[in-house]
Amino acid sequence: MSNNIDKFLITNPSFYTNIDRNIAYAMESGVSKIYLRDIGLSENLLIDFLESCKKYNILLFINYIVKFLSYNINGIHLKGGELHLVDKIPANLFISYSAHSLDDVINAYNSNVDFIFLSPILFVKGKMPPLGIEYINKIPDIYKHKIYALGGINSTNIEDFYNLGIKGVAGIRMFLKDSNV
User: Fold this and answer.
1) Which one, 30, 76, 109, 166, has the greatest CB density within 10 A?
2) Alpha-carbon span 170 to 117, nearest angstrom
3) What is the CA radius of gyration of the chain?
4) Element (H, E) at 46
5) 83-114: b or e for each residue (b if 16 or more CB lie within 10 Å)?
């Protein structure tokens, strides 16, 4: 099986305990992009992530926070209902988006979003019912090159995603050194 898919890490607060170590491990796991998912993002935390991401040659995405648009970030992540912000994002930044249906994928694609997190694909406790891998197979190929499968993916099932024609997989725990995060 081909392992030629991209890997996108999404952070949670437990990731912040040792940022450099966690980013180094993510890089060793093949991660090329990190979404620093923190609505109350502080300047100090952003700077810590920027320094480590630069050190390990990993692209950094944050939520749409106007005061941080001038920092050396690589992309902005938009959540559902935020596609109207696409035109406000500087052209030099990538844009990722959270989608939960084919309609969401199509809307993001038509809005020129670069990367689309489609979730949840597999079961995740506390999340909406999973779409399933079969759902990805039913998506027209024209959209797949922008899609990152998200939700319930781990080292025991990641190979199931290698030959689906999607851009990659995204996850939180999957790329962290400590499995209890």
Assistant:
1) 76
2) 7
3) 16
4) helix 43-55
5) beebeebeeeebbbbbbbeeebbbbbbeeebe
Q: Which two tokens stand for residue 6?
A: 């991209």
pLDDT score, position 180: 46
Look at residue 161 in the predicted model and tell me its pLDDT.
97
Peptide bond into 129 cis (omega under 30): no
Q: Which helix (H) or strand (E) holds 150?
A: strand 147-150
Percent of the chain with pLDDT strictly greater than 70: 96
The CATH number corresponding to 6-175 among 3.40.50.720, 3.40.50.2300, 3.20.20.70, 3.30.565.10 equals: 3.20.20.70
